[in-house]
């Protein structure tokens, strides 16, 4: 560490390249314009960097630029930001981050970042945050998360009003409108379990506080769900506390008969509902209940769109409970939904026999003529069972359906939980496509079977592969650009587009043929969004369908670094993956002609993986003079393989100048030509220049022969 190395050139910008000039307008707390010149890193030539001295600020700026330019990170979390003066952020970090991130559609934008400060929201807004168009910095809502944990620990004897009054969001404009603060419940410092001195245990459902997570995800403002996969073993020192262990759809806690844990979609479902519904103003409506308007036991709120003139259109209705005794709580509240709107409970809690064994909680609410509904919110216990699911989410029906891919050749299976660690486990099977084309097919159904008609079924669907912004449907360009707030970078279905809304059909159908030559080898991710038919001035409500898939038309691309010559009896060979598909490599020496290189691969000739793109293996027994055949075999997850032969010159006879395998007059002639030309090959003694000593030593070696 901290030692001179030629490998460090890549950490310095190349001042021979065109610079970027930035003019930072400053802030009210640190006024004045500051001008900076930033040179780019030379990613094509790692040796082209120009080393220079740094002070601490300069080093941090250079490192920030390197992380963004070279590693392509999307943003930062700034730890303990209160201990660093505001001028550092406002003047220097904001300047180096300004329009530094390149979006999938090629625009330069300022990456998002947020700081961690245990000071008040007011202090954090006035000393850390910056949202003026030049900077893009936020702060973790420490006080809001703390009060959420206090409410959870109070086990029903606290109040949601305390939480609402504590958010950082209030500091900038006095409103809980999502303009400031990153909402969360737990973090690596204040987790669900653990004391920091050892690996944290798995938390209980009470410790995870699902109703608090539901509140965070469904209210306004950016939200995060902290998850500690415990994928890195530590020998000691600081251990991050445990987070929401079910955040990835799997409960790793051993269950009776299931020592490796079980699936649990509670948090992924809430994240999906956040994406599908959580748009518009955050409006708490407990106060509209004339019988019990308090927030002591439950909070009931909606997300709505302000249509102007005192008119609103609601998107979703949410109820969360902090009580840990058995039963439910009822509220009669006035919503912003139009009369007659059917609201379906979307989490599945109302239909769960453990949570609601007597069907007291409605699966469907119908808004009455005065826009009121009676909502029952389950408490977090039923009988003697603490289920922790004290929340409900009601929304207008969104399209249901099935997403399939055609022309698949095989499947990459899900990993076995019994033999694969949770942190590295594939939880779903992945179709493999090897043909020249395939078809995306979404078949939709009415999300509300009891509606009696298809008036509000799907009226359109769009798709995106990976990060989008590519013309996969042959329309001549990207169909939906970055200005769209809901589905930027998506494409329309043009092979077939048959919406269900307004018809008497049983299904809607959306199909798109994709040419696989437009996709790179390896893993890809498909997102398809189907929209509920809506009226003008209403927010878009939709369901997203996702499907990973694997393109496998050829074997993995790989190369072997072959030295000019080898003089030792062993050599470490390095192999490089040229795409992201290879997951195993083998190196074979002197494979007989006609032998199957794939069949010859076994554990004894397998290479060691150094990182995602590099493998290595030491070959021994390089004793004979001449060319040695070395075969590189690369495998990918699908089982497909590629094999390439390389011929490596093993030089045990220096006088064999023309590399024919024996010494004859042709070697003498070749050396004389090289010597007269003064080329590097004639530097026989390795002195660094060509002179009579090289000629003399060659003649001596020639006379000895091989």
Structure explained in plain terms:
- This protein has 706 residues and is α+β, with helices and mostly antiparallel strands.
- It folds into five domains: 6-228 and 241-248 and 263-278, Glycosidases (TIM Barrel); 287-396, Immunoglobulin-like (Sandwich), CATH 2.60.40.1180; 400-418 and 425-551, Immunoglobulin-like, CATH 2.60.40; 559-650, Immunoglobulin-like, CATH 2.60.40; 665-704, no CATH class.
- Helix content is 15%, strand content 29%.
- The chain has eleven helices and 36 strands.
- The strands form eleven sheets. A six-stranded antiparallel sheet has the order 10-11-12-19-14-15, with helices on one face. A six-stranded mixed sheet has the order 21-22-29-28-24-25, with helices on one face.
- The longest helix has 14 residues, at 56-69.
- The model has no long low-confidence stretch (mean pLDDT 94).
Layout of strands and helices, then pairs:
Layout: E1 20-26, E2 31-38, H1 56-69, E3 75-78, H2 86-97, E4 101-102, E5 108-109, E6 112-115, H3 121-127, E7 137-139, H4 142-153, H5 160-164, H6 170-173, H7 205-208, H8 210-218, E8 250-251, E9 262-263, H9 266-277, E10 281-284, E11 298-308, E12 311-321, E13 328-334, E14 342-345, E15 364-366, E16 372-378, E17 381-382, E18 385-386, E19 391-396, E20 400-405, E21 410-412, E22 430-433, E23 437-445, E24 458-465, E25 491-492, E26 496-498, E27 508-515, E28 522-532, E29 542-551, E30 558-560, E31 571-577, E32 582-589, E33 608-609, E34 614-619, E35 626-636, E36 641-650, H10 665-677, H11 692-704
Parallel strand pairs: 3-6, 6-7, 22-29
Antiparallel strand pairs: 1-2, 4-5, 8-9, 10-11, 11-12, 12-19, 13-16, 14-15, 14-19, 17-18, 20-23, 21-22, 23-27, 24-25, 24-28, 26-27, 28-29, 30-31, 31-34, 32-35, 33-34, 35-36
Helix pairs in contact: 1-2, 8-9, 10-11
């Amino acid at each position: 560490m901290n030692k001179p190395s030629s490998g460090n050139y890549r950490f310095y910008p190349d001042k021979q390249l065109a610079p970027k000039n930035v003019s930072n307008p400053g802030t009210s707390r640190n006024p004045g314009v500051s001008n900076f010149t930033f040179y780019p890193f030379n990613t094509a030539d790692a040796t082209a960097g120009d080393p220079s001295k740094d002070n601490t600020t300069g080093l941090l700026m250079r490192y920030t630029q390197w992380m963004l330019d070279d590693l392509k990170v999307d943003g930062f979390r700034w730890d303990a930001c209160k201990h660093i003066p505001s001028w550092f952020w406002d003047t220097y970090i904001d300047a180096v981050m300004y329009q530094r991130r390149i979006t999938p559609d090629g625009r330069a934008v300022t990456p998002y970042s947020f700081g961690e400060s245990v000071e008040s929201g007011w202090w954090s807004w006035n000393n850390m945050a910056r949202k003026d168009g030049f900077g893009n910095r936020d702060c973790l809502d420490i006080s809001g998360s703390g009060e959420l944990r206090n409410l959870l620990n109070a086990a029903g004897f606290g109040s949601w009003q305390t939480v609402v009054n504590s958010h950082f969001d209030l500091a900038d404009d006095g409103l809980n409108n999502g303009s400031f603060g990153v909402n969360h419940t737990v973090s690596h410092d204040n987790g669900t379990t653990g004391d920091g001195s050892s690996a944290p245990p798995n938390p209980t459902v009470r410790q995870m506080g699902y109703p608090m997570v539901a509140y965070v995800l469904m209210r306004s403002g950016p939200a995060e769900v902290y998850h500690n996969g415990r994928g890195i073993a530590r020998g000691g020192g600081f251990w991050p506390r445990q987070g929401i262990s079910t955040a990835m759809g799997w409960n790793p806690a051993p269950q009776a008969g299931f020592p490796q844990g079980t699936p649990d979609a509670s948090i992924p479902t809430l994240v999906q509902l956040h994406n599908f519904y959580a748009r518009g103003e955050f409006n708490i409506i407990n106060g509209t209940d004339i019988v019990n308007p308090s927030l002591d036991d439950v909070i009931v709120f909606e997300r709505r769109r302000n249509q102007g003139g005192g008119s609103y259109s609601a998107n979703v209705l949410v109820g969360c409970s902090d009580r840990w005794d058995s039963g439910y709580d009822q509220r009669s509240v006035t919503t912003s939904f139009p009369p007659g709107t059917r609201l379906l409970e979307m989490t599945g809690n109302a239909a769960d026999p453990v949570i609601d064994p007597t069907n007291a909680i409605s699966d469907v609410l119908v808004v009455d003529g005065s826009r009121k509904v009676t909502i029952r919110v389950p408490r977090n216990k039923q009988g003697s069972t603490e289920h922790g699911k004290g929340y409900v989410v009601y929304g207008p029906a969104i399209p249901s359906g099935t997403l399939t891919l055609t022309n698949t050749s095989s499947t990459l299976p899900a990993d076995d939980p019994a033999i694969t660690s949770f942190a590295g486990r594939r939880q779903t099977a992945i179709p493999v496509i090897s043909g020249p084309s395939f078809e995306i097919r979404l078949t939709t159904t009415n999300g509300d079977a009891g509606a009696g008609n298809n008036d509000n079924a799907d009226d359109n669907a769009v798709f995106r592969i990976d990060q989008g912004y590519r013309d996969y449907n042959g329309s001549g360009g990207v169909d939906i650009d970055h200005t769209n707030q809901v589905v930027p970078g998506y494409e329309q279905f043009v092979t077939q587009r048959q919406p269900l809304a307004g018809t008497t059909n049983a299904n809607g159908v959306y199909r798109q043929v994709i040419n696989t030559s437009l996709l790179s080898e390896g893993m890809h991710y498909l997102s398809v969004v189907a929209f509920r038919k809506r009226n003008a001035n209403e927010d878009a409500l939709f369901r997203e369908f996702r499907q990973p898939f694997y393109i496998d038309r050829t074997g993995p691309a790989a190369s072997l670094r072959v030295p000019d010559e080898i003089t030792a009896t062993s050599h470490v060979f390095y192999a490089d993956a040229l795409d992201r598909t290879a997951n195993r490599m083998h190196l074979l020496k002197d494979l007989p002609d006609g032998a199957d290189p794939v069949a010859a691969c076994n554990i004894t000739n397998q290479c060691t993986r150094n990182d995602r793109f590099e493998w290595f293996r030491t070959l021994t027994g390089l004793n004979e003079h001449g060319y040695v055949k070395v075969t590189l075999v690369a495998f990918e997850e699908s089982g497909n393989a590629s094999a390439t032969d390389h011929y490596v010159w093993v030089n045990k006879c220096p006088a064999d100048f023309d590399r024919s395998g024996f010494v004859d007059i042709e070697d003498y002639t070749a050396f004389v030509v090289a010597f007269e030309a003064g080329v590097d090959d004639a530097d026989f003694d390795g002195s660094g220049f060509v002179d009579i000593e090289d000629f003399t030593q060659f003649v001596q070696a020639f006379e000895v022969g091989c």
